[in-house]
Amino acid sequence: MESDAERVAFGDDLFKVIEGMTKLETEQLKFLCFGHIPVGTIEQMDITDLLQSLKERRIISADKYDFLIECLILIGRNDIAHQLGCDTDDMHALDSSLQKYKSFAGLESFIILLHTVADNMEEKEVKKIVVYFSETAYISRGKLKMCHNGFQLLSLLLKVRHIHANNLKTLLDLVQVLNRKDLEEKIKLYQDINSSSDESYKPTSYVPEENKNKSDDDDDDDDNSDKNADNGERNLQHYKMTAKPRGICLIFNNVHFMTENLKDRIGSDVDKDELVKVFTNFHFEIIEYRDLTKTEMRAKLGEVSSMDHREYDCFVCCILSHGTEGIVYGVDGEPLPYTNITSPFQPSKCKSLTGKPKLYFIQACQGLAYQSGEEDIEFDGLSMSVPTSIPNEADFLMAYATVSGYVSFRSKRNGSWFIQNLCKVFRDCSKKYDLSDMLLMVNNSVSKEDGLMGNQIYKQIPAPLSTLRKKVFF
Predict the structure, then answer these.
(1) Does the predicted TM-score (pTM) go above 0.90?
(2) Which of 91, 265, 304, 474 supports an S-S bond with 430, CB 3.0-4.6 Å?
(3) Whether residue 322 lies in the annotated active site
(4) pLDDT tens-digit profile of 216-249?
């Protein structure tokens, strides 16, 4: 734990940064942090929030400013870097390394490249690119028109996954439209330096024996499973899961409600934190939102579904909120049907996720508190039930915390039974078992939990419903 003196010193150092930053420099600093803080989260931050978040994530501390110093050098604020303890010789050495996209403090090389491109774009060039992308189906014209500098433009393109580290074609097209040979050379230098790291990550530990020595194309050929049938049983294929990042993991965490009949969901942050850890470890890009109304939730679902998911292998959505039959609630107490949650990602509306697994993990609750006995336990839905049908389109999985007519439980200290057991099983078993097997383990683990009300013991069983056609290995 920090001493009072350390907190004062740390605050003074951060004040030096805050005091000296212009609006554009703040945009640049936020841009450089995209590899460490989700894009959707960082957009809403001011400079104070940003630095506090970096501290909470232990990226910077009272005796650790190397990440911040590298950022300051990139945006040309050597004076502030000097105030934080970096001498001239170190600055020259760091600047030389950063020009070669090499960071000693954890800055992502791709973000350094994008910063270089954005920093060298003039306003008229940004306008030219806005016109160039205005016909793109995956990008809102209104949002494009709000981009007035290179950082705003590339931030938007990053957010909708129109540019990414695994494929530099769009970025090369962008600089070629501008006829910027200098920027094209910088991109090619990045490619040369990072050529070995651009190869797709292909874990082998989870590949079933019957699928070894097969190409990725074989995985997508359903007819092959008939040819490989053994004793009349089909050998199940598995979805491709090698992209980095694997895909978007969208998390809605509704804790504080505006209506009297829906209590605050104390303990939900514990669930959210575990989900972030697990899916970050699975190489997903996390986008998290807290305390959204029904309208806001629908809008965010629409935004994510309109992204370009072509380079992704999967989509995950986690919803932590109150709920009742077939719905979850926004913090305004308005109901959001499950159909409104899944429909934006159906093939007709999100073509870039066609044929890819779309996984939903829903901890929905009604918020009826457990009054007598251990006050740490609350009910998450006394008459909670789920639809009797699953999405018409294939490749969906809906994993609900409970079945029709039964409560689900959440601990104020330890989080919900469903999410906590889900995360534990995923952490312990993902290298050996597929998603279907792990959800059976979650069912078994949750079924062993006990909820006490007076002298009566209450139980819970989750309800996964699936139209998946293949196995999912994280």
Answers:
(1) no
(2) 474
(3) yes
(4) 444 444 444 334 444 434 456 899 998 989 999 9
Handedness of CA 152, 69, 194, 287 (dihedral sign): negative
Identify the helix (H) or strand (E) that includes residue 302. Answer: helix 294-305
Where b means 16+ CB within 10 Å and e means fewer, 216-239 reads eeebeeeeebeeeeeeeeeeebbb
Q: Which amino acid is at 290?
A: R
Tokens of residue 293, six digits: 């109304």
HSE value, Cβ hemisphere, 13 Å, CA-based, for 7: 5
Q: 147, 317, 350, 365: which one is catalytic?
A: 365
- Span between the terminal Cα atoms of the chain, in Å: 36
| Alpha carbons 187 and 285: distance in angstroms, whole number | 23
**What domains are defined for the chain?**
4-107 (1.10.533.10), 116-197 (1.10.533), 247-466 (3.40.50.1460)
Chain centroid offset of residue 274 CA: 13
CB 287, CB 319: distance < 8 Å: no
Q: At what angle do helices 181-193 and 109-119 cross, to 10 degrees?
A: 170
Chain-centroid distance of CA 280 in Å reads: 7
- φ and ψ of 342, to 5 deg: -90, -30
- Tell me the pLDDT tens digit for each residue of 383-392: 334 444 444 4
Residue 106's SS3 state is coil
* Single-letter code of the amino acid located at 216: D
Distance in angstroms (rounded) separating the CA atoms of residues 111 and 164 = 10
From 164, 283, 309, 322, active-site residue: 322
- Compute CA 461 distance to the chain's CA centroid, rounded to the nearest angstrom: 27
* Known catalytic residue at 314: no
More confident residue, 42 or 220: 42
